[in-house]
Amino acid sequence: MTIYQNLIAGEWVGSDATKNINPSDTNEVVGLYADGTAEDTRNAIAAAKAAFPAWSRSGIWERHVILKKAGDEIMARKDELGALLAREEGKTLPEAIGETIRASQIFEFFAGEALRLAGEVIPSVRPNIGVEITRDPLGVIGIITPWNFPIAIPAWKIAPALCYGNTIVFKPAELVPGCSWAIVDILHRAGLPKGVLNLVMGKGSVVGQAMLDSPDVTGITFTGSTGTGRRVASASIEHNRKFQLEMGGKNPMVVLDDADLAVAVEAAANSGFFSTGQRCTASSRLIVTEGIHDKFVAALTEKLKTLVVDNAMKAGTHIGPVVDEKQLKTDTDYIEIGRKEGAKLAFGGELITRETPGFYLQPTLFTEATNQMRISREEIFGPVVSLIRVRDYEEALATANDTPFGLSAGIATTSLKHATHFKRNSEAGMVMVNLPTAGVDFHVPFGGRKGSSYGPREQGKYAAEFYTSVKTAYTLA
Ligand code: NDP
């Protein structure tokens, strides 16, 4: 089998490899991907540092052309790359193709942004002096990504980093190197100069750690768990390095008595269980007022009965497998915890056997949960949802905000008053009205508050806040 190698200083290198296994069919090896070392990482950082002076001064047309070419190729290969994504991560083929299209759109967006780079020229408060405010690239950006969005998250970090003139060392999650390798290959062939984008696949504790330890990495953008995020933060503070963290969520979806039942059920089923619940924006807490509670539970349970859990590549599958054995154990451990805490298992909770061996778990709904239970406070990151009954809107809002996280929050209501109040008073970074808490646009800011995020927002033109450093220059006229 071919080994997909690391890209360091424009050369494909590496002979040790790790198997990329399909969670829908554990007999299938998706590919062999290089297992990078700390030395590989240091070489990649040195290459990125050497490439920075020229790339940071490259013309914006060159950056536009490369980013546009990448976006076009990803779109042209959406079915093939979507299938690779579904096979390595386990989300359904339509979801995987959708994510691939989104990656392409992100490259197209930043291809446009490259042509819109601008600063400000403003008068000084003192006479005869001019002030210019410009944005400079940061330098070498370390990119560390999780397994749950194997093409979109790398795209929304790589595209702005290149657009604003930075060079990159990129470490994807070890579980899903395939899509990352593909987009690095596409960008390399699109004409990026040597060393501008370096790929080092391998373990977080080796490759990721070597990035954290290097004084030559000037910025780190990280998406992943809260625990690893804390390590990124403390190592970055030590090096006086800029960093950005996107971490977990325990996103609430409030359902009020006046909600359109069909809209509420659709939003809850989609954001609680699609992508196997493995989205940082998943609605893992449903907070439902008394008047609609029983009707909502009955309708959601009926909906869950119709959802097909099976091989991600099979037509008709709504929910693919859990990503791996470790995550499956986390999910089943939490199901046990929920039972012991006294929540009522209203649906699911069991492992499923399918034609191909994989990590299949029923969508699982706990009712009669409280917001103090561990299943309602800790991020599970699987298809396991707690439903909490509350008296009224005021209690719903207080419960929604009573969490260490603050990524996304939703409300299902037909009341303009409650929708408006919720948008203003939710403590989350993203708020959805009559929509799933998961599922966002690519051209507007993405990110959370409290324990979910740290640093500037990602995506859209707000991405410039992280990937550039502002300079203020004064000139005597
Ligand atoms: P992890 O924190 O385990 O891993 C994230 C990345 O960090 C991986 O590439 C991992 O490498 C790497 N890593 C692990 N240890 C280190 C280290 N010591 N130094 C540097 N890098 C390291 O998270 P998961 O991949 O398990 O992703 C799931 C988590 O991500 C969930 O908590 C989820 O909520 C969060 N997430 C947040 C999003 C957001 O935008 N807020 C979006 C998507 C996910 P390795 O390959 O070895 O695992």
Automatic annotation (TrEMBL):
Keyword Metal-binding belongs to the record: yes
Pfam families to which the protein is assigned, alphabetical: Aldedh
A GO term, aspect molecular function: metal ion binding
NADP found in the keyword field: yes
Transmembrane segments: none
Domain Aldehyde dehydrogenase intervals: 13-472
Coiled coil (UniProt feature): none
Protein's UniProt name: Aldehyde dehydrogenase family protein
Organism annotation: Rhizobium grahamii
Lineage: Bacteria, Pseudomonadati, Pseudomonadota, Alphaproteobacteria, Hyphomicrobiales
